[in-house]
Design a protein that fits this description.
- The radius of gyration is 17 Å and the shape is globular.
- The longest helix is centred in the first third of the chain and has 16 residues.
- It has 225 residues and is mostly beta strands.
- It is built from 1 helix and 12 strands; from the N terminus they run H-E-E-E-E-E-E-E-E-E-E-E-E.
- The chain has a single domain, classed as monomeric porin ompg (Porin), CATH 2.40.160.40.
- It has a 12-stranded antiparallel beta barrel.
Length: 225
């Protein structure tokens, strides 16, 4: 209950403060920045509010709803390595936290670890993202395993180049695999799901819409301020 109230308070503060700054959404924004990231599909919702204390370390709170469970996880995000090239950038991020899984009004401890890697130029984009949850909950039959999480891989390209203050468009193909779900889950166990995505961003705001090749939808929203 305390974690849920804390998360709601932070999201409410976001609305009061407002938006500003860059368009690219990362687990560790620039020093002093806030970031809101919302990843939504036909069977899962994930929302994170992030604040960077330094250019390498950020604190975040994440809400995740999947397979009849709700997860509330405060976490730390660390930029482990960054490569700044003349016309591209690459990053490695590590993340970890401990929080609560709520199922049928009962709270159980959950521990989280994450790894993210990306490379992007003005024309091309590659990303690998993995989140792992170790759960104490044994009651949710839709997530029968102690270990639960997902792996995501993306490749993308920009069909045309635009300036920072103009509308930028990207075409992205995403492969996603969930680990630890039961056969009754929305993704049908541990199969790989392919999604075609259109990404748009201008200034500090980025949004994505997509459709899964086997059915379903995706909508993501990201902003830094």
């Amino acid at each position: 209950m305390v974690l849920r109230r804390f998360t709601a308070l932070l999201f409410g503060a976001l609305v009061v403060v407002g938006f500003g700054a860059r368009s690219e959404a990362h687990p560790v924004p620039y020093k002093g920045a806030w970031g809101l990231m919302s990843f939504n599909s036909s069977d899962m919702t994930e929302v994170s509010l992030v604040h960077s204390f330094t250019s390498q370390l950020a604190v975040a709170t994440t809400y995740l709803k999947s397979s009849d469970s709700e997860f509330y996880i405060p976490r730390l995000n660390w930029l482990a390595k960054r490569w700044n090239n003349e016309d591209s950038q690459a990053n490695i991020y590590l993340s970890g936290g401990i929080g609560s899984e709520v199922f049928k009004n009962e709270n159980q401890t959950v521990r989280m670890a994450g790894l993210g890697m990306d490379w992007e130029s003005r024309r091309y984009y590659v990303l690998f993202d993995q989140m792992y949850l170790h759960r104490d909950n044994r009651r949710n039959l839709a997530i029968p395993n102690e270990s639960y999480g997902y792996m995501k891989f993306r490749v993308g390209t920009a069909p045309f180049l635009a300036e920072y203050d103009e509308l930028n468009v990207w075409l992205i193909l995403q492969a996603e695999r969930y680990v630890g779900r039961g056969s009754g889950s929305g993704l049908g166990g541990e199969e790989v799901e392919l999604t075609q995505i259109l990404r748009f961003y201008v200034r500090n705001t980025l949004w994505e819409i997509g459709t899964r090749l086997n059915g379903g939808w995706v909508f993501n929203y990201m902003v830094h301020f």
